[in-house]
Structure formats: C-alpha cells, structure tokens
Amino acid sequence: MKTKAVRIYGVNDLRLEEFELPEIRDDEILARIISDSICMSSHKLALQGGSHKRIRYDLSRQPCIIGHEFCGVLEKVGAKWAGQFNEGDRFAIQPALNYPDENGKTTLWAPGYSYEYIGGDATHIIIPMEVMEMNCLLPYYGDNFFMGSLSEPVSCVAGAFHAQYHSTGGSYVHDMGIIEGGSMVLLASVGPMGLSAIDYAIHAPRKSARVIVTDIDHARLRRAEELLTVEEAKKNGVELVYVNTKNCSDPIAHLKNLNGGRLFDDVFVFAPVKQVLEMGDALLGHDGCLNFFAGPTDTSFSAPLNFYNIHYENHHIVGTSGGNTEDMKESLNMMAQGLLNPVFMITHVGGLNAAAETTIELDKIPGGKKLIYTHKKLPLAAIADFSEKTGDKELGPLYSALAEICNRHRGLWSKEAEDYLLANAPDI
Q1: In this structure, what is the dihedral angle of CA atoms 189, 193, 197, 203, given to the nearest 10 degrees?
Q2: What is the rounded distance in angstroms from the CA atom of residue 35 to the CA atom of residue 120?
Q3: CA–CA separation, 195 vs 188, rounded Å?
Q4: How far is Cα 287 from Cα 279, in angstroms, rounded to an integer?
Q5: Of 339, 343, 322, 325, residue with least CA distance to 409
Q6: How is the chain split among helix, strand and coil, in percent rounded to 5?
Q7: What pLDDT was estimated at residue 393?
Q8: Is 394 left (phi over 0), alpha (psi -120 to 50) or beta?
Q9: Residue 18, strand partner residues
Q10: Residue 92 and residue 293: Cα distance in Å, rounded?
Q11: Can you state the angle between helices 415-424 and 396-408, rounded to 10 degrees?
C-alpha cells in the first residue's frame, strides 16, 4: 500500500513524499499513524543530517522517515505477533529500542531516525520486529491520540527524575531518584518539557518538599502559574515557587534564600546555556545531583564545573536523553489515571504538509509542542491564533469551531477539538 511520509535525505533536506510500502513480513506490523508531536531532537536530526548518531543508512540511498512521538492504530498484524497484538489496537512506541547488533553491542537505532518504513510523520508505517522484541510497542487505552503522542516526551521527564542519584550514608551505594522530601530547583523550565517536569514533580509518587521554578520570560512564567498552580502543588504536599530571575542582581543568593538559606538536593537545567548550567552548579548542595536535561546542538558545548565540590561536596552530574520503556509505561499509566495532564504542552496544530518546515524551523517558532495530524492538510497554527483565522476563505469555519472549542477548555487542546479536526479538516 502507499504511504505519505516526511523523509530525511541530508542536512535540512526533508521531503514529503508518497511511496509504496512493501508487504509486511510475519514478524512485522502495519500501522496507521494519527498524531505525532514534533520534538527538538528531530530538529537536531535535520541540522545534522547523515552525521547524526542515530542515522543507520546512507540517506541519499535509503532516506528515513522522521518523527518519534506518535500514536496510532494497528491495521495488520504479522503471524508471529497474532494474539499478542490485534488489529484495531491503539498504540504508542518507545523509540529508544537499545537493540543489540549481531555482535551483541547496543545500537542507537530508533524509529524516527534510523528506519525506512517507521517514523511518526507518516500516514502508514511498518513496525519492524525490533520494536516488538524489545517490548517497545505499548498499548494505549486513551480516548484520544494526542496524549499518546505526548507519552514519549513525558517519559523523558520521568526518566530524568529516576536517573538522579545520591549516596547512601556515605557509602558508595547510590540511591536512585530525587531526594524524597528534599529541595529541587528547575532552571529555565517553563518551556514544554519544563512544564511537564513541574507536573511530574507535583504528582509523582516520590516528591521534593519544595520545588522552585525559574525562567526569565514573564509571559511564560504566568502561563505556567495558571496551568500548574501553587494551590494544586500544596494539595499534593509540595511547596511550589515561581521565580523570574531576569532582574535579580544575585539570582543564586535569592534562590538560596527561598530555600531557607540552603543549597539544593536536586537541580535540573532545561536550557543549553552556559550561564544557566553554571548557576545550576553553584546551587548544588552536599551530595546533590545536577541533571543537564537540555540537549545542545553544538557538539563542543561546555561550561565550567566546580571540581572542588565534585571531590569534597560529593556533587553528582547526570545527563539524560530520553526515557526507557518502563518510564513510558509509567507515563501512560499516570495519564490514564488522570495524575498527569500534559495537554498544556501543545501550543500549535498542523497537518502532515507542515511537518517538514516545522521541524527545520522549530527553534524559531515560539510556544510549546507542535502537534501534527498526519492524515490532514493544514498549515501549522497556534491555538491562541485560531480566532484570528476565522476569515480564511477555505479554513475559516474550521478555525472558528476550533477556537470556540479551545476557549471552553481554557485555551487548551482537547479530545473534543481533536475529534472535530479529524472529522472536518481536509485530508492530505
């Protein structure tokens, strides 16, 4: 059957094409993608092209489908997986397969980076055997598709929290995870992933007693405060404080004062900015752990760290790039229980025709997650701008209805909005 998909051929060379998928083998599954949220990691892939660490083939001969935050429906299940998976099942995928090669070495192969026939920016895909063998094809029981797409970025946040480590009683045994009942600071953290981290910090089973959130963008901080309130955090046993450090003469001293004059147990850095990383290092207390969450595009990015404190204050440094399958299962379960509601991450919606340009220009487009509906033909549009597009000759009625729906949902995307778009937006 034919699919339409965005494939990468080289540096910033992304092409929306229609091509034939081969017949699936007994160890493969045919699936229909409904939604894909565009990740900054895909932007970095576009910037690096064939030099990206996850690229598997010569892209000029074997281009790969991009996108790895997707959700859809299984359409045809190969004989090997009959009974384990069923046609009509909704699914999400953990793209970090960690699949071993013929020598047993763990590879970096991942859907959305490394395969000809699987990626999120497509109408139909073939799920290869590696995904099922590594238990990375996950059932999704939600009544919408966009939450399934968000489960992957949420799993990255869960993984970051789990990757924190501290010493146990002065021994060399590490206690994994954040300090329960301790103090945490999230730096530059009101972007889409930072918002998810605030949500997780408030609602995860293991919590810090105090969470301080910083940024220098007043509008984004206000939006964060409205979506993830101090009152909601308090109900869950967390003291949540939002701080704009833009005009602080001494932000490090100010943040310490907010923490009772003490340094922090857990520090997360959500921007690949030298000064922010240095601030995180300076805020780290004894036996504290600093997580450099933000992945830089500059392969030579560096910042000074206080190695005296690493030696004498037992400072720990960790960087996480994605979650694992257990993190994604946790995210899906917490969303199903209503404990996490990452819909606030989505600020823009578009069709498959918008995916290539959006991926290339992602760092220049303000807002949070850009959600792509792969069977639809729509320009990328901010949810906040829907009401301004009602005069469009072709799409005006669609945007008028979506604006009304989103206004009833506090300006957020919703199942109602998704259902209306899927029923009424033009097909690609």
Answers
A1: 130
A2: 7
A3: 10
A4: 17
A5: 343
A6: 35, 25, 40
A7: 87
A8: alpha
A9: 4
A10: 23
A11: 170
pLDDT in tens, 172-213: 889 999 999 999 999 999 998 999 999 999 999 999 999 999
Closest CA to 201 of 279, 267, 271, 272: 267
Contact call for residues 195 and 344 (beta carbons, < 8 A):
yes
Place of tokens 């850095």: 269
**What is the DSSP track for 106-168?**
BP---TTTS-SS--SSBSEEEE-HHHHHTT-EEE---SSSHHHHHHHHHHHHHHHHHH-EEES
Contact criterion met (CB below 8 Å) for 307 and 315: no
pLDDT at 179: 97
The CA distance from 428 to 379, in Å, is: 11
Q: How many angstroms from the chain centroid is the CA of residue 297? A: 16
Q: What distance in Å separates the CA atoms of residue 182 and residue 318, rounded to the nearest whole number? A: 18
**Which residues, 6+ apart, have CB-to-CB distance to 342 below 8 Å?**
147, 150, 153, 154, 195, 196, 199, 335
Tokens, residue 331: 């995210």
Q: Give the Cα separation of 67 and 64 in Å (integer).
A: 10
Which spans in 181-323 are helix H? 192-203, 218-227, 230-235, 251-258, 274-282, 307-312
Q: What is the pLDDT of residue 21?
A: 98
Residue 298 has pLDDT above 90, yes or no: no
* Full-model pTM: 0.90
Are residues 356 and 180 in contact, defined by beta-carbon separation less than 8 angstroms?
A: no
pLDDT in tens, 120-140: 999 999 999 999 999 999 999
C-alpha span between 42 and 66 (Å, rounded): 7
